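Try it yourself: sequence plus fe (ii) ion, in.
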Amino acid sequence: MRRVTLTDIFLHPITQKYLKRSGVAHAIATAYHAYRLALQYGVNVDLATKAALLHDIGHYEWYSNGTWDYETYKQNDIHAIKGAERAHKLLIRLGEHPQHAKEIALAILLHTDSYLPEGELKRKPLQTIVKLADEADEEPGGKHHYRQIDDELALKKIQQLDRMVEQQLQRDALDQIS
Ligand SMILES: [Fe+2]
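Structure, out:
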């Protein structure tokens, strides 16, 4: 069974701090998209939802003098690198299996190629899913980062997704022995 749940991750102060910055509503919507896509692609739903929930925790404050400077952001952004590292540290601290922590971190690292040199990036299915899930929730001008969600509703959605993941992992386990 899972060593760490989405609820464990979501309620951790580190997650709260960085998700409040990049958008709790966006993180949760991306995690739900990742669940759906993981089923479609035959990828582990546990890894996909965790990577999607944490994919943007590497963002820094984009504001200068109260407004978001999108151009400077685009030139200097390394949120995927920071996010991968933060997520990995957090997951290990929570007791996640090291192999899973690594796979989740890599999916976060590669969810965007905006910071990489030009060229074709060959993603594994888990990495593709996190990218597609993120894009499925994107709004023009980065508006998805500002969409608000009530704390209580956010937690309920995370707990619901945990139950969906648990049920799917049980189905996967049954498939393996039949
Ligand atoms: Fe995102």
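One thing you can check immediately is this: Strands lie at 63-64, 67-68.
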